[in-house]
Amino acid sequence: MKIQEIQELSEKERGEKLSDLREEYFNLKFQLATGKIENPGRLKYMRRDIARILTLQSRVPEAEAAQAKDSTKAEDKK
């Protein structure tokens, strides 16, 4: 999943996608432990997708705070 695809999702959809990825990652780790996993390389990509979503979620409040700060500065100049 690319960052562009994640950015296009709504906040609710990102949360749902994150929980789905975490559940799938857990299942893959369980398969790895039991030796029944078909593609162990998929774990790497799952971790990265989870990290991308978490990174984007942490950036959203920062962007909103910066936008609010900019609007406050603009009001102060008036």
Description:
This protein has 78 residues and is mainly α. The chain has one domain: Helix Hairpins (Orthogonal Bundle), CATH 1.10.287.310. The chain is 85% helix and 0% strand. The protein has three helices and no strands. The chain is rod-shaped. The model has no long low-confidence stretch (mean pLDDT 86).
Keywords:
rod-shaped; 78 residues; mainly alpha; 0% strand; Helix Hairpins
Question: How many structural units, i.e. domains?
Answer: 1
Which spans of ≥5 residues are poorly predicted at pLDDT below 50?
A: none
CATH-defined topology = Helix Hairpins
Helix-strand sequence: HHH
Short description:
The chain has one domain (3-77): Helix Hairpins (Orthogonal Bundle), CATH 1.10.287.310.
List the helices and strands and how they pair.
Elements: H1 3-8, H2 11-34, H3 42-77
Helix pairs in contact: 2-3
